[in-house]
Design goal:
This protein has 2 domains: 144 residues, 3-Layer(bba) Sandwich (FAD/NAD(P)-binding domain); 158 residues, Polyamine Oxidase, Chain A, domain 2 (Alpha-Beta Complex), CATH 3.90.660. It is α/β, with parallel strands linked by helices and 367 residues long. The chain is built from 12 helices and 17 strands. It is globular. The longest helix is centred in the middle third of the chain and has 23 residues. It is 32% helix and 21% strand.
């Protein structure tokens, strides 16, 4: 948001030029850019040092502008964080895959910086009633997922903005499994909460790429050359005629523009107040953005009893929303992850840790 676009030196052309350069610049390229001038005012204040905030800061710096990147927490990365202590191997607590690697600037930056980024397996395995599926089951499963995708896409392309679940054909007996792949697995929401128009406009994902040391390590590397003010929580934004004032728990910042790289739920909860208030159409848009749920339930399975390939994904034939996909042998280790999403993930997150342990046992014994 910009208090007065006419007074801002940030043109769309300059911003996009910086973004283009960022795709091929090495990890340390932003180190000498974006310095705060002696006046204390910056060109851009960026609130939130997750993936979006880090990308914004590097883009602003590459375009030759100054910035202040602030983060309420004690670390960068937002929901993308890699833990190495729990299991002795890199474990991504949040996001773990980079899609469209041929065009994804994060992949190019990471590889240029020496990180081991490799292609994820191009296929997945399917289990039915505890056994690997036969050829016909594989064909039926894929065919029903494609039928569902085509139906939702056709509704969206026709401008019928409906819950995706309402336009599905009869996908029995694969309905629950197909709905999981199209909804919680991809969108982190049940299809009842997914817009058919949004679904039709989304880019199709490929198998993507994985970071050997964890996706969180890539974000740490991307943020390393940046100046980040940790444990600095924004509380309000005052959009003045010339400069924006951002109040934080550590003082006030001034800038010509502000980029919000935080969840919309924080705005709705009043954690960051904006004055003057955003126009009604903007506030309405924020209110309509709801976050989904996608969680990892991790466990060690020594000896590879499932005979899985490294980083292989396993789908199961499900009867209800209480289902999952399995990511096996993460990075070639004994670490395995049950991936759950949507309403089931929300419900499981509210339970004590023992519920997650019980679900792992249930999944391994029944599937």
């Amino acid at each position: 948001m910009t208090p007065n676009p006419a007074l801002s030196p940030l043109s769309r052309r300059a911003f996009l030029a910086g973004a283009s350069a960022l795709a091929v610049a090495p990890l340390g390229a932003a180190a000498a850019l974006g310095q705060v001038p002696a006046s204390g005012a910056v060109d851009v204040i960026i609130i939130g040092a997750g993936a979006a905030g880090i990308a914004a800061a590097r883009t602003v710096a590459a375009a030759g502008h100054s910035y202040a990147l602030i983060e309420a927490g004690a670390r960068v990365g937002g929901r993308a964080v890699t833990d190495t202590a729990l299991y002795g191997v890199p474990f991504d607590l949040g996001a773990h895959r980079l899609y469209m690697p041929a065009d994804n600037p994060m992949v190019a930056l990471g590889m240029a910086g020496g990180l081991d980024i490799y292609a994820a397996p191009s296929s997945a395995r399917l289990y039915v009633n505890g056994r690997e599926a036969g050829e016909q089951d594989y064909e039926d499963f894929v065919a029903n997922v494609r039928r569902g995708e085509r139906a939702i896409g056709a509704a969206g392309d026709a401008g019928r903005d409906l819950p995706a679940a309402r336009v599905l054909p009869d996908l029995a007996p694969w309905a629950a499994s197909a709905a999981f792949v199209m909804g919680p697995q991809i969108c982190a929401k049940d299809l009842e909460q997914v817009s058919s128009v949004d679904f039709s406009r989304a880019e199709e994902r490929d198998q993507g790429a994985l970071v050997r040391t964890g996706l969180g390590s890539l974000l740490d590397a991307l943020a390393a050359p940046l100046s980040v003010r940790l444990e600095t929580a924004a509380t309000s934004i005052n959009l003045g005629p010339r400069l924006a004032q951002v109040s934080t728990n550590r003082g006030t910042l001034s800038g010509r523009a502000v980029i919000l790289a935080i969840p919309p739920s924080l705005l709705l909860a009043g954690k960051v107040r904006i004055s003057p208030a955003l126009p009604l159409r903007y506030r309405s848009a924020v209110e309509r953005i709801t976050l989904g749920a996608f969680d990892h339930v991790a466990f060690l399975l020594p000896g590879n009893p499932l005979k899985l390939l490294n980083d292989e994904t396993v789908h199961v034939k499900a009867q209800t929303k209480r289902t999952f996909s399995l990511l096996g042998r993460v990075g070639g280790s004994d670490l395995h992850i049950l991936q759950v999403g949507g309403s089931f993930a929300e419900a499981l997150a509210k339970e004590p840790p023992a519920a997650g342990v019980a679900f792992v046992k249930e999944a391994l014994t029944q599937e």
